[in-house]
From TrEMBL:
One of its GO terms (biological process) is phosphorelay signal transduction system. This is Response regulator. The keyword rRNA processing does not apply. The modification 4-aspartylphosphate is found at D60.
Length: 136
């Protein structure tokens, strides 16, 4: 049974196969997922976000053109985007990165991505007892 509705999700990763895999996991998750947008880098993601309301972002950290750190920095400093729940999906495990993600209020999961771990991170934003609930 699907527990929570998340209307618009944005997956940001430079690897098309990874984006497909993440879409499959989201569709199999306990969440009722609406539309899934895809971007291959942070610049394309910002463009999508400027034209569409996004309710959840999954982003890679290591990408060309604009990497995940630059992307997260832009959305963190942009009034319209800063409150969008964001989960970094990464192979990086550095303490500095994890501290930055925690400071900005973002979740993170390590690659390879597993459904239970992803659901756990998303539940931090969309669970029954969580502060963040869908804004519209």
């Amino acid at each position: 049974m699907k527990t929570e509705s998340i209307k618009n999700v944005l997956i940001v990763d430079d690897e098309p196969a990874i984006r497909v895999f993440q879409k499959v996991l989201l569709r199999r998750s306990k969440f009722d997922i609406g539309h899934i947008y895809e971007a291959g880098n942070g610049i394309d993601a910002i463009d999508i976000m400027s034209r569409n309301r996004i309710d959840l972002i999954l982003t890679d950290i290591n990408m060309p053109v604009m990497n995940g750190i630059e992307f997260l920095n832009i959305i963190h400093n942009h009034q319209q985007f800063r409150d969008v729940p964001t989960v970094a999906v990464t192979t990086e495990r550095g303490e500095q990165l994890l501290n930055m993600l925690a400071f900005w209020g973002h979740g993170y999961v390590n690659k390879p991505l597993r459904l239970g771990v992803l659901e756990q991170q998303i539940s931090k934003f969309y669970g029954i007892n969580n502060e963040y609930h869908l804004h519209g």
